[in-house]
Fold each of these.
Amino acid sequence: MKHLLKMLDLETEEILEILDLADQLKYELKHGISHPHLKEKSLGMIFQKASTRTRVSFETGMYQLGGHPLFLSSDDLQIGRGEPVQDTARVLSRYLDGIMIRTFEQKEVEDLAKYGSIPVINGLTDFCHPCQILADLMTIREVKSSFDGLKVCFIGDGNNMANSLIVGCLKVGMSFSIACPDGYHPDGQVMAFASGYGDKFTLTNKPMEAAQDADIVITDVWSSMGMESEIEARKRAFAGYQIKDDVMAAAHSDAMVLHCLPAHREEEITEKVFEAHAKEIFEEAENRLHAQKAVMVKLMGE
Ligand code: CP
Ligand code: NVA
């Protein structure tokens, strides 16, 4: 593994190795065992979109690994004024040991990896959010002990989260059911991947059907970053796609709820369901730190 660009690129074995290392790093952090695996290494973090969790967890994670994180807002970089990504990649490769980038187009992330000579980590694009899915898988395994026989249900937009969850969950052996309105389906590349999993993957426009006997219920915002002009139309399209009591009643009684955050209460999830599952949701947020540290050690460590 040279980069983390999308879940589609990872072998199941690589995912499990990252999760095992993440568990170990979490244990070490909780027990005061230092782990300076990235001493004297620098990570550049390019942000073309807002962030709370990704920025703070990468920055703190890099510090905990003994390295140096640099926050690079696209407002201040020449890339924001049109310097080509090919040139940015070749320049940054001469200063840094790794780049994390949050941007719009997946192609920009792929190009950064193609033209640069250091590891690139995708911190979210319109297409996918692999760092979040690694944290989600880590959280699921912590709570449920194993992935065996589990069913994941996603209700909402076929967006970057859905695209990555479908691939990650199927790769580790869980089954996956997604409910989204017509016109808001996951990406075609992801649908093609999922079609190879037979009845372990289902797509419906009926949330209750998707939630039936689910062990993990997941949602995300109806309008992702960059879709601000579609907010009102999306509120109408997604009105019936909320995680609420009747959806949870269709799932297993001990079903977990995950949300990558930020959450819009009373839109994609009710306040009641969110607060009833706050423990898992904030553990999931914490696990961003541990999962990303594992990714950085795998990609940037000796
Ligand atoms: N879940 C997530 O990526 O959060 P941020 O947008 O705050 O980084
Ligand atoms: N789908 C959301 C995820 C935010 C972490 C977005 O792209 O805005």
Amino acid sequence: MTGAGTAGERRIGVLALQGGVREHLDLLESVGVHGVRVRTPQDLAGLDGIVLPGGESSTIDRLLRIFDLTDPLREAIRAGLPTLATCAGLITLAEQIIDPAPGQQSLGILDITVQRNAFGAQVKSEEATVDTTDGPVRAAFIRAPIVTRVGSGVEVIAEHRGRVVGVRAGAVTAVAFHPELTGDALLHASLARSVERA
Ligand code: GLN
């Protein structure tokens, strides 16, 4: 895949329908790649990678369908577009959702089952350092999901409180937390490196 920007400049999209977009754009810039907002199927053209932000997964699902992005986004990621998904983004990629909102669908790209809002009322939100296989990440958990089933071909890259909170399959990395809210660029740097290799 070739970026459409100036020669050698890598462009990574941030799905910008709802949720925390600005923080991801800032972290991408901090690791030396140009971040661009994705709102239409046309915006996917020429991207070298994509970030699916947190927010509310059922709203993101509805907006993906309204903006005719569901199928093009699924196809682009299936075709190997390097992807980083956080929180609601993880839910968006999952094969199966426990406790979905009424009518909520997902892209079915990662062979995992996720449970929404899984840490319960007592741990609705917290900040913690999570050991990932890429290194420690300062993470914010906000009504975070957990991964309750991991299919074959999916690697667990992070656990927190004994639960799976990060997975990777091929070029897709998905975490249940928000590294962008603490300004931790480790996973964005990993994405940028995988884009350099692609
Ligand atoms: N609980 C939210 C959902 O179901 C995810 C929360 C988040 O992205 N911080 O989409």
